Amino acid sequence: MSEPSPNTPQAGMFALGTAAHAYLELDLEQGRDGAELVRHLASLREPRTTMGGVNLVVGFRPELWGAAFPAAAPLELAGFNDAVRGPDGFTMPATQHDALLWLSGSAYDVLFDTARAAIAGLEGLATVAEEASSWPYQHDRDLTGFVDGTENPTVAEAPEVILIHDGAPGAGGTVLLLQKWVHDARSWESLPTEEQEGVMGRQKLDSVELDPKRADSHVASTDQDRFGKIFRRNMPYGTVTDHGTMFVGFCSERKPLQAMLESMSGLESGTRDALTYFTTPLTGAYYFVPSISALLAASPEEARA
After folding, report:
1. What average pLDDT does range 45-66 have in this prediction?
2. For residues 90, 275, 240 and 99, what is the CA-based torsion angle, rounded to 10 degrees?
3. Beta bridge partners of 131
4. Cβ(228)–Cβ(151) below 8 Å
5. Is the CATH number of domain 11-304 3.30.70.3420?
């Protein structure tokens, strides 16, 4: 197999339109070596495209990757090790794990078999600490009924936004923020559409930004013109009685992502994002998603043949 170009990103991050997703957050077994976990997960995938028709994105707790491969680690990147607490007590919990497998594909049955095989191969090395599955809702809307990712860069523009630039440690990699948010659907759906639009800062039907908009609206609280651009791959998760949003956000550095969380919590203005009265974060973790060449370098020799 020919080597990929230096700093080629993991392609699954940009695989839009996939109908099924699974997120497996992993913890290293006590006494096992983090470098061994990196090598194992790096060897799971066909490195440039997909794995048996499944897109697979592999990420690692920044401290674990940095200890195993310091020369290929971004500078000063840390995990989600401390909760984000707003002035009124609103809290975004820190539930950092050691690694992430994000699988996506055309149907869940293929993901199911692939995920089970991956988990079986980890026996004695790592365990699944968090698991979620998700699917698209009304093409590009989340379970609030609003379009999600309106400000997203295009797939052509996204690499410039989210990838660490050539010449920097970790080049071709990216920072992933993963959070699970459960919705209070009954409270949200009891609001008239006009009030929902005020909370969001956008019109519901066509996603046009309100002008003027509330200072505590979700759009104002996460304004990418202030904090920096990110690339979002959010998806709905759950059942008809227990559901919400998997927030999947990529950026070339942690700072814009962290600043948005702090803004939503009210640390900046003293007033938290109005949307957080209707949705609650259950998890929070940062993962470093290495380039394909970094994964190849980490994988065992036999996996490179």
Report:
1. 79
2. -60
3. 24
4. no
5. yes
- For residue 76, the 8-state DSSP code is T
Which burial class, exposed, middle or buried, applies to 123 when counting CB atoms under 10 A from its CB (0-12, 13-18, 19+)?
A: exposed
Residues serving a catalytic function are 148
Give the single-character DSSP code of 143.
T
- Kindly report, residue by residue over 228-279, the tens digit of the pLDDT: 999 999 999 999 999 999 999 999 999 999 999 999 999 989 999 999 999 9
123 SS3 class:
coil
Which residues have C-beta within 8 Å of that of residue 267, sequence separation ≥ 6?
84, 86, 87
What residue type is 114 in one-letter code?
T
Gap between the Cα atoms of 298 and 25, Å rounded? 20
As given in the structure block, the two tokens for residue 62 are 């920044």
Count CB atoms within 10 A of the CB of residue 159: 17
Omega prior to 300 cis, within 30 of 0: no
Q: Which residues of 233-271 are buried (b: 16+ CB within 10 A; e: fewer)?
A: bbbbbbeeeebbbbbbbbbbbbebbbbbbbbbbbbbeee
CB 165 within 8 A of CB 252: yes
Which sequence spans correspond to the domains of the chain? 11-304
Helix (H) or strand (E) holding 280: strand 279-281
Residues written for the chain:
305
Average pLDDT over residues 102-118: 93
Nearest in space to 99 (alpha carbons), one of 25, 2, 6, 184: 25
**What would the two tokens of residue 234 be?**
């959010």
Which two structure tokens, joined as six digits, stand for 203? Answer: 């019109």
The DSSP result for 235-287, as a single string, is EEEE-SSSEEEEEEEEESSHHHHHHHHHHHHTTTTSS--GGGGTEEE---EEE
- Look up residue 7 and give its amino acid: N
Neighbours of 184 (CB within 10 A): 13
Residue 97 to residue 286: CA distance in whole angstroms: 9
What is the structure's pLDDT at 49? 47
Sign, Cα dihedral of 139, 145, 148, 151: positive
